[in-house]
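The instructor's notes for this session suggest beginning with a concrete chain rather than abstract definitions. Hand out the sequence below and ask the class to guess, before any prediction is shown, which regions might be ordered.
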Amino acid sequence: MSTELSSQAEAVNQALQDPAPKVDLPTSLKVDLFRGLYAPSSEEWYTTATVRELNGEDEEALSAFDVQKNVTYSEYMTHLLKRGVVTIGDIEVNGKAEIIDDLIVGDRDALFLGVLKATYGRYREFQVTCRECGGDNDITMDLDTDFKSEPVKVDLHKPITVKLKNNTTVQLRYPTGGDSQIAGKRGKTTAEQNTIILSRCALLDGKTTAEKEAWARGLSLADRNKLVKALFSAQPGPRMEEVETQCSHCNAKIVLALDWVALLFG
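After discussion, reveal the predicted structure:
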């Protein structure tokens, strides 16, 4: 064998013996859900999901979706989660919006926080300009501790029962992302959105959609407020609240009012 061929053979043998180059796989994360997703085929609730980090392709897709007209916050969240959520239990999401829309709002928020952690890690850094002195401040948020969820004290698989002024009771199911989207699209005002949410979540067997909405409009203001409060105060999940800090230059108070989307792209 010639020297050249011998050298080539040694190079091939060495390449076969060396470990294959490592490819960085997308970061994934397990997320525990509060209520989960019901699987009729197995008659069980799936309460564990897998999410992945978002990449440049996702950013482009979300930006293109965001420039469309009349996109509601709930629609945007669905579009984001159907890309970032890989599985819920044994169910593969595969970009199916209807799976994401069947989750209660608290579970959707928990999934988004999971996507955020998979994308950035535990800590999320921001740069904020002080309104008092104009100085730039580096702010770090701990995604594990700054967005805690209160312990769930009720069975989320059972309806909410509310007693009205006339001592009758109404049972409500927890609103889902799909409910929020329909209310946001059809309701031009908060009052109209409340009517739609109540009509969709109230368990009124045998009534048509029009009859349910008429029922919601006919409720007294006190009863409507009580029902709406019951729906949203019982919703579990991480809470988005204002974060206060001080300017490192002039000690002035800085208040950060962030939403979930700002946490992702801000």
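Then share the key points. The mean pLDDT is 87. The radius of gyration is 25 Å.
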